[in-house]
Amino acid sequence: LIIVCAGRNAIINRTKESDMNNNAKLLIAVLFAFGTGLTAGNYALSDVNSNYKIAVVNVPVLVESSSQVKALKDKNTKNIQELAKLSETAKAEINKESDSTKQKALKEKYQKEFKTKKTAMTKDYEAKLLEIDKNISNIIETQAKAEGYNLVLAKGAVLAGGTDITNEIAKKVK
After folding, report:
1. 3-class state of residue 98 by DSSP
2. Can you give the pTM of this predicted structure?
3. Dihedral angle at the C-alpha atoms of 57, 52, 150, 41, nearest 10 degrees?
4. CA distance 12 to 90
5. Of 59, 56, 65, which Cα lies nearest the Cα of 144?
6. Which of 8, 24, 66, 122 has the most crowded CB, counting CB atoms within 10 A?
7. Is the pLDDT of residue 32 over 80?
8. Residues with Cβ < 8 Å from 166, sequence gap 6 or more?
9. In the beta sheet, which residues pair with residue 54?
10. Which residue, 144, 133, 135, 138, is CA-closest to 166?
């Protein structure tokens, strides 16, 4: 009985020693990976040229100063008014009709017309918005290259640093 217990304790002690060895190996591996990551990160950062120029741009200011955006907003407002007028006309005409079959046909006709117009207006709006976005992006890129900037970031994404070139670009945005 004593031999069995001693044997059992030896097995438990070996298991504890094995777990401790595994934990030590894991700790060494983690520390090695962490050290390698720090070294690699510092090496990557050390390659940044001291003449690297970074600019920031306040995009919402550029959007607000764009006459293209203002024109698009005005057109969108008119389109919404047009759809509202179509809806009112449809309701009035449907309510005038006393025959339920004709009422249903009118309702389907106006729903289809409304959906077609709304889809066309949405596609037109999105296409023009994409065009404006490309235009503003091209102006930013051209200005940044002309002034020798290597990187341009949105001002909202930068906590500190970078040269603000929003005003120069706003003058060129139409």
Report:
1. coil
2. 0.61
3. -90
4. 86
5. 56
6. 66
7. no
8. 56, 57, 58, 61, 62, 155
9. 151
10. 144
Strand positions, DSSP E, the chain: 54-57, 151-154, 163-164
- Helix, strand, or coil (residue 11): helix
- Angle, helices 100-146/67-96, rounded to nearest 10 degrees: 180
Residue linked to tokens 């004709």: 102
Beta bridge partners of 151: 54
Strands 163-164 and 54-57: parallel
Give the rounded distance of the alpha carbon of 101 from its chain centre: 48
pLDDT of res. 131: 92
Nearest to 146 by CA among 170, 161, 173, 168: 168
Query: Which two tokens mark 174?
Result: 């139409």
